[in-house]
Amino acid sequence: MELVALTFASGWTSGINAYATVLVLGLLGRFAGVADVPAGLQRTDVLIVVGILAALEFFADKIPYLDSIWDGISTFIRPIAGAVIGALIAGANGDLLTLTLASLGGVTALLSHAVKSGLRLAVNTSPEPASNLGASLTGDVAVVSVASLAALYPVPAAIIAGILLLATIVLLIFAFTRIRKGWRALGNWMTKRAEAS
After folding, report:
1. Model pTM?
2. Angle of helix 2-31 relative to helix 129-152, nearest 10 degrees?
3. φ, ψ (nearest 5 deg) of residue 43
């Protein structure tokens, strides 16, 4: 049960920020001795690379429209990261448990990524930059908090991740018209950048 909970919670955080998820889990496994964190996430080379990528994402995620472009690119990365973390948690033996946890991590990451990307498009339609910065910082705090809790107490972390996923899906439904507006605004922003260069 704890492996399923850890996979679900880390899948949810991977969908928001895969690099920060791997970094938090890896650091907790390596320096806090958390036994359930796979050894592959604790390697020095992995920690250095995801540390650099997490820093890049931290800054890219604070800039309106650039955050949506980053999310678009991350559509291919975040679900795979959730699946890989799930497979590593299961032991990556190629057995049914590995396939199940990889699927759970990947699907959860894809769901939370889709919700985050949609909500950020809606936030980008706001005229003031504080809402974008606030949404980004809220996501950062949620990722670090839930990933840390998942490593130490997987079941409560999975419950919190489930509640947050459901709450943001409901919010996404209510923000649908703003998301359509966000797509148009993103297209206009990209057109202006292309014309300027």
Report:
1. 0.89
2. 100
3. -65, 145
